[in-house]
Amino acid sequence: MAKNEEDMPLTMAQSDQPRESHDQYILRRMREEGCNDRLRKATRMAWSTLEYNLFKFRVSIEILNESDPTQFKDDMMQWLQDLCYNEDLDSDDKTCEEVSNELYLKINEKYPSRTVWIDVAEDRGNGVLTQYDKRI
To answer: Which of 11, 28, 42, 80 is most open to solvent, judged by the fewest CB atoms within 10 Å of its CB?
Structure first.
């Protein structure tokens, strides 16, 4: 038999804290698993900001199973800049909502089945923030 606490196995060591009951243990494990589950299911978004004509854009696109999220963001940013500066996006005489909708259609062609947030603002400060859900 162990003569002092140092000689005792860890399972037999007495602690100052009261031992957790089975119900408390189950609740604690459920909370931990719930937190881990939320982290696994979290929606990861890559966002980019750019200006074109009178409009300022902030575009967020859901990252699915990209092996390199940084590379995805760089590619997305380059594609958005090319889209605007090659004049593939027509923003003349359009409202922020119309520009947002047109931009979403182009994004959905390139990156289908993703949640997309588009924030479009004019120089005067008016703007719109639209969430396009992938389930729709």
So the answer is: 11
31 within a domain of the structure (yes/no)? no
| Count: domains in the chain | 1
Tokens of residue 71, six digits: 């590379």
CA 49 – CA 35 distance, rounded (Å) = 31
Find the domain containing 123 and state its range.
Answer: 44-132
Give tens-digit pLDDT for 58-69: 898 888 876 777
pLDDT tens digits, 72-82: 888 888 988 88
Task: State the Cα angle at 77 between 103 and 62, rounded to 5°.
Answer: 70
- 0.70 surpassed by pTM: no
